[in-house]
What we know:
By secondary structure, the chain is an alpha+beta fold. The protein is built from six helices and 14 strands. The strands form three sheets. It has a six-stranded mixed sheet. Strands 5-6-7-8-12-9 form a six-stranded mixed sheet. It has a two-stranded antiparallel ribbon with strand order 10-11.
Amino acid sequence: MRIATWNVNSIRQRLDHLQTWLKERQPDIVCLQEIKCIDEAFPREPLEALGYNVAVHGQKTFNGVALLSKYPFDEVAPGLIGHDGDVQARFLEALVSTKAGVLRVVSLYLPNGNPANTDKYTYKINWMDRLIQFSRERLKLEEPMLLCGDFNVIPTPADARRPEAWVNDALFLPKTREKFRALTNLGLTDAIRAVSDSDELYSFWDYQAGAFQKNDGIRIDHLLLSPQAADRLADAGIDKHVRGWEKPSDHVPVWVDLAIEGR
DNA sequence: ATGGCCAATATGATTGGA
Length: 263
């Protein structure tokens, strides 16, 4: 079972890339972020034609998340707990059945939080607290579960080419990293870090200043595995070459292989 | 030289991203 996450920065601008990459990487489940469209505008048909079931939680202009799955969705639920009054489409949870039982997958787009001295950062930290609460609840179920998406968190200095450039940024502030540790300390495994300690693994390169050419990147797209998923971790990787395609997203796909068979 | 970009919107300037 191959599960991937990708912030596509507009599904309508990136449909060609997504189709090309799906054929190349052959993931079973894909978590998408920043689809930037309402549900009705999501290009379901071309993705269904490739054999995927589609679940969408979109909104106009900004944010928006989606899930693709070769296997049917048993349940789909949008919105993170404690979302009273939160109209931003950033969270979509689904259950699929496998030969090993149920598999829970979340596609999430954690708030950016910049500038850090504004209510945007307060929203980010509150959102992280809600995610911690959600995870604490779900981990009690002792299921294979993956929290996948654009976390907008640089976990450690090894996850940035130039950590000094990010010290005052909402993605790297001590409070942000502390909340991310509080999340992983619940017992979630960062799949990429479970397979490599390289300090040159990035998932985002800014469009500006030739960042990709200089490999001036950061690792902010993550797959966090519950213990029951981590038990079955076989491999993980980052499809960096996609950033070199024409008119790319500023993020690239990150994937994990689990020793779980679909049904 | 601390910059340079991109996407969506009743669009031609503004907002958000990271």
